[in-house]
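Protein record

Derive C-alpha cells from sequence
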Amino acid sequence: MTNWGGLGRGTHVIRSQDQGLTWEDVGPYPGLTSGQIVNSNDPYLYVDPWTDRLVKFDMHALAVMFVEYSEDEGESWSIPYPGSGVYTPQDHQSIASVPPGPDFDGPLLHDTVYVFCINTGNQGPLGPFCDTSIDGGHTWEGQVIGWPSGRTQCAGLHGHLVGAEDGAIYRGNPSCDGPAAYRSLDGGRTWTEHTIDTSHQSRGHEVAIGTDDASNVHALWIATDDLPYYSWSQDQGETWSTPINVAPPGVNYTGFPTIAGGADGRVVFGYIGESNHSEWSGYMGIITDAYADNPLITTVAVNARADMLDDTEDCGSVRCGGFGDFIDVVIDKQGRPWIALAHNPGNQEGIVGTLVTGPRLRGPLEALPPIVPGGPETLSL
C-alpha cells in the first residue's frame, strides 16, 4: 500500500510479506535518498503483473509526474524519471502496463508497454491525456488525447488503467452518453470510446474497469440511484452485458467502486456502502460464474457493523477522511482477493480486507486455505 508522507517527506510504501498480518514501512528512507520524490500530492503504487516490478507514480505540485520503480519489492528504488505534460494542472494520475498488442508499432525496450493518463482540469480540451513509454518509464513519447479524435468529451476524470493479456489497455470514465470504457490497442497512442450503458447513468467519474486472465473486460460504477452496477464484455468492450445491481439487500447507498478480474469469468469488486446515511462499511463482492444467466454474487462486509469505517452522512458521494479519489482491489497469484480501504475513526489509517476462506479466483475453482482473521485490534494506531 501507499501512504502520503506529508509535505517534504514523499510517498511511504507500506509492505506486508505474511498476508497482511504484519506491515513495515519501506520508504522513503531518512534523508530522502535517491528514488524518493520530496512530495507527492497523490501517492500511487502499481505492481506490474507481468514483471512484478513495483512502480511508484507520484504527482508533484499538480505539474509533473515522476516514475520510480523497485525490482526488489521495495528494498531499493530507481532514480525519479519525469513524465511529459501538455497542460496544467496534471492531476488524478493512473499508470499501468500491458504486453505489446497486435496494433503496437515500433521497438519495445522493456518487457511491457507503460501507459499513464491524467486529468488536465479545465485548461485545454475536456478529457484525459495519456502517454506511452517503451523503455520502462525512463522516457515518454508525449501526451496525446485519451479519446477518439473529433468525439466530444463530457468528463475528464477517470478510474484506474488496466492492461489485458491480449495487449489492450483500458480505463473507465463517463462518455457523454453514459459510463464507458476507453480502449487502446496500440499502447496508449490512440483510443476508442465504448459506452457501457445508457439506462443507468454514472453518478460520478469513477467508472472502474478490470480485466481477467482471458482478456475479458469487467466494469463497475455507481449509478444515480446510489447503487453499484456491474457489466462485462467478451469482445474488448465492443458490446456489453445487461447491467445488474450487485448491492446486497439492505445496502442502499454506495460509493468509490473498484473491480479486478482473475480467471476467466471470476471477478472481485469493492465499494463502501451503508443503509442509513451514517454507518459506512467496506464491501467486497465475488462472482465466480460471471457469464451465467443468474450469476451467484457473494458479498461480505470487511468490518463489523460496530467498527464502521466512517460516520459522515454523505461519505459515498464526497471526499471524506481517507476516502478520496480511489479505493482499490486486487487478486493475488494464489487467487485471494484484497481490498484497500481507510479506517477514518482510526486516524484515517489504511486497512486491507480479504476472505478468511472462500473460492480461489485464479487457477482451479477450489477453496482458499484459511488465514488468520483480522479485526479492530490489528490497527496499529
